[in-house]
TrEMBL record:
It comes from Jimgerdemannia flammicorona. PROSITE patterns: RHODANESE_3 (PS50206). PANTHER family: THIOSULFATE SULFURTRANSFERASE/RHODANESE-LIKE DOMAIN-CONTAINING PROTEIN 2 (PTHR43268), THIOSULFATE SULFURTRANSFERASE_RHODANESE-LIKE DOMAIN-CONTAINING PROTEIN 2 (PTHR43268:SF6). It holds the Pfam family TSTD2_N. Residues 223-324 form the Rhodanese domain. InterPro entries: Rhodanese-like_dom, Rhodanese-like_dom_sf, Rhodanese_C, TrhO, TRHO_N, TSTD2_N. It comes from the Eukaryota. This is Rhodanese domain-containing protein.
Amino acid sequence: MPKPSARERAAKRQAINTFLEARHQSNDASEAGRWVCCGKVYVTLESVSRHVHSQHQIELDEMREGSSDPVTLTCACDPTFSTVILFYKYVPVSDPLLFAAHHHDLCTRLGLTGKIRIAAEGINATLAGINPSIASYVDWISRHPVLAAGRLSAEDPDTAFTRRRHLFFKPSSGCAHVFPSLSVRVVDEICPLGVPGLRVKEGADGKVSPAEFFGLLKKARENPGEYVCLDTRNYYESRIGRFDGALCPPIRRFGAFPDFVERNRAAWEGKTVLAYCTGGIRCEKATAYLRQSLSHTEGALRTKILMLDGGIHNYLEWVKEQQQLQSDPVSATRSSAIIDSLWRGRNYIFDARQSLGLDEKGKGGWENGDDAGVIISWCQICAVTREDRYTKCAGASCHLLVLCCDECRAGRYADGKVFCCEVCERWEREGEEQGVIRARKEMCRCERERKEEERRGMVRTGVEVEMEALGG
């Protein structure tokens, strides 16, 4: 086996450091340390490190691999010849190892790339490949007992199966090379939250359709004291796209969501929570946790927990359908015509395409006033140019995503290396001068500020917040 390179060793050390930092709970400088993981408290670095290495190796490997996953793609392939699918299902899997082996064998033969995570609680997958290969995979998995209850098979006599398939597998056009390889793994959770004993029920518990969610968002606008629109994704996802007025946790990993809930419990007790995520998998587990956590608060008002079925992906597909209806002179006169989709920016996705919007040409909304296509994020370097394209920090021990405009790339970072902050840049530049690659020993400024924001609590979004930031 080849010896790991210096950069790979640095990425491994940084993955461990980042994992431990995310679970460090001490705010008092006099405390030697206090880490919380898997519901247990560890008071020494040695004890928590031993636990992490023995119980969380898969997460560490994924964090290390994440430092090299591409977030941009340059390819001459015609994307219309290929398809990317995204799906999940919380359903008992009797033999995860066998199910994973079947997946690896079939996907390899079909030439598919992507990531598949299988656990006793279900399956989470995103795959890319040429259209015939994706179609073959969808036919196979739709007939598998794990998905049998979804009535997705082409043999189903119900003529609506095609639409059910579309909503479930969430296909989109994209180059077959948006993933560098195929990764199939058996894991403890298909979407790691780290709450022992939490069970996600099968069925449509609290799920609402895009049309229903749209109606609820309008009610939330009119009655902000009765509703909370909650983004269950990570901060870098909500930074470039979100629903107007959403509360966006400044968390870096989904596993930090329970702590965020506990710190902000009073913000949603007795209200109607409208939760959403990219495709539904995180939201489904997050809402299960919210029900478990909030419903047992003594003396508290009952909280209603709802989630967007199919996530942002299916919501934007629904909006596109409404857009097509409005382009029809007959349909456009209907009283139900949508003026504002209430979505802002782009939907972050975990492949080299990076994000999807309502209009891939960059205009994203209707001419009658929808702001869906407006870039809502700013270059992190100059803070004067709107930017929604990420690049990765060039620090050997950092893979944070950075928004950097073309002007800053050509100017400050003319050598092609973009850094998330001056700490990473200094550490990398000094290493280059010394001819070594080092894992960063201190937390970078942007990550330190994010953690401070995470401890403070809620992050609102919307016009009123932008006005406050501008001094309005």
